[in-house]
Amino acid sequence: MKAKAGWGLLIAVMVFLCLGAVLAVGGYGLVGPSVRCALPRETAGRPGWEAHKVISGGVERCYYLYAPPTYDPSRPPPVVFSFHGFLANPNSQALISGWHTLADREGFVVVYPQGQKFPLRWNAGPTWGNSEVDDVQFFRDMLDDLPLAVDRSRVYVNGFSNGGGMAVRIGCEAADRVTAVGSVAGAVVSFVGCPPSRPLPLIAFHGTADPIVPYEGEDMRGWLLRQAAGATDAPRRFIGVETWVARWAEFDGCSLAPQPLPPQGDARGVRYTGCEGGSEVVLYTIVDGGHTWPGGRPIPGLGKTSRDVSATEEMWRFFAGFRLEETE
User: What is the CATH number of the domain that holds 132?
Assistant: First the structure.
């Protein structure tokens, strides 16, 4: 009986690995690798889009920049940085999140940065296998390198998965340059560099059925899928989203009893108020949501994408309510 149970476990592991490999190949084929600093065909040559290089930490780094048709340098607009996930790239982040589409309506500038190594990833914590890369400094260098005039009191940072963890790390270590932070399916592994130097507004979204970054933290299935997808040096454990969001509310000096927000279909929200410096912390839980961007383009094989709430729209509404009092 023990031998049969052992074989059953081995077969289950192999099935998970094969399934993960299929999903990884399919998803990676959808977004495509992007290691050169060049715009993809669908955006190259289109007004408003540019690819830029900047030297950061002695290495040439890349980011995509989008300016809306209404851009006016005499009236510097806000800027939104959106970091892609592991195995992804700036193009996939643009497709999934649609920040540039919202920018056309709201008039802000968008930056889609590109990660390092292969597959592309961010140094979002001490266990991401990318410790020699300082991606917080890369953020600072991009902000200083922007060829467009932007409002430095309205600099908003967000990301997906590994990029969501990177946005949180930037919030921890660069609160002097960031107005507010957003995270979707954020892979948060630690609070290195925290608490922030000032109370920092934060909004997060996470699905309860996320197979890659589990809602309550690590489980064996999520680790197996990441291994199958080639993320062999990714962390074994993540912090559960309710845990790390509550910790952030503690950093901000908020009331530790969150207030429920009105439900929006499959989205259930809570808000931490009474925070120092007028800050707020918000968490949207997507019931049965997968490793996806609510309201965005679905990602094949990674679970349900909510159509009841738009992470991009809700984040922008949240971001727009905050401004840095003092800037460099």
Answer: 3.40.50.1820
Per-residue pLDDT tens over the stretch 35-83: 678 888 778 778 899 999 999 999 999 999 999 999 999 999 999 999 9
pTM for this prediction: 0.86
Number of domains comprising the chain = 1
Q: Which residues contact 25 (CB under 8 A, 6 or more apart)?
A: none
- Please tell me the distance from the alpha carbon of residue 197 to that of residue 184, in angstroms, as a whole number: 23
Quote the tokens at residue 125: 């914590």
Residue 157 placed within a domain: yes
Is residue 327, in this structure, part of any structural domain at all?
no
pLDDT for the residue 19: 39
Contact 79, 109 (CB under 8 A): yes
Is residue 292 within 8 Å of 92, Cβ to Cβ?
no
How far apart (Å, rounded) are the C-alpha atoms in residues 254 and 274? 5
Quick check: is 325 in a domain?
Answer: no
Long-range contacts of range 190-193, CB-CB < 8 Å, 24 or more positions apart? 190/125, 190/126, 190/127, 190/239, 191/244, 191/247, 192/125, 192/126, 193/136, 193/169
Instruction: List, in sequence order, every residue forming a beta bridge with 60; answer none if it has no partner.
Output: 55
- Could you report the per-residue pLDDT of 173-205, keeping only the tens digit for each? 999 999 999 999 999 998 989 999 999 999 999
Q: For residue 181, give the nearest of 262, 283, 258 by alpha carbon.
A: 283
| pLDDT mean over 84-88 | 93
Structural domain boundaries, residue 77: 2-319
